Amino acid sequence: MGNRTFIITGTSKGIGRQLAELCLEKGDSVYGIARGASDLGNIYERYTHVQFDLTDIQGIDDVISGILEQIPLLSVECIGLINNAVMLEPLKPIDQCLADEISVHLNISLAAPMILTSSFIHHTNHITAPRKIINVSSASGSYAAPSMAAYCTSKAGINMFTQCVAMEQVSQSNPVEIVAFDPGMVDTELQAVARGKSTEEFALSGAFRDAYETGQLKTPRDVALALLELL
I need a surface site. Which of 67, 88, 120, 182 has the fewest CB within 10 A? Predict the structure, then answer.
């Protein structure tokens, strides 16, 4: 398969874990960043876990530069960053959202991917191997919904951010290929949280339950396979 290395956020569960496993099964090296622990390192020798809370946006550059120092950058066949970690809550009308809840959400779902992207590009600008960035997006970035102001706003931001960086990269000698990827509705912990809310708190909880009960949700593995194709 060659010497490909990927940095993936949110690898302790869901889509991130599935994608890490698929890459590792192909013989790629994976550095996973997640707030929680991971047993992937016990199963795959090419997996390195970095336990880090992405709400600490000031520490992100140190994490990325630390990871990249461990990678023989001049001999990699391809290097990629997959910004997959996300937060769904707060799921309630904006006048019920606390400042801390909004701040934490935007740090994890929008500021962190922006800083990760900035740091990744900056610290790899000297290499000639192909570089790829995938930002996991959502249809919520294009369609407004009640009680989802934080989530819809962060996903709309990710989409616009991706377009801006793509325009910056066009004129570079080794441009980074950057895309936003909408996985559709996926049966993850985020969906379970949305389904579990009362209709009073989250008006769309019934719609999320219906999607689950009528089999409309993709599995995290299905989405990870689609991401693998993009890589």
Answer: 182
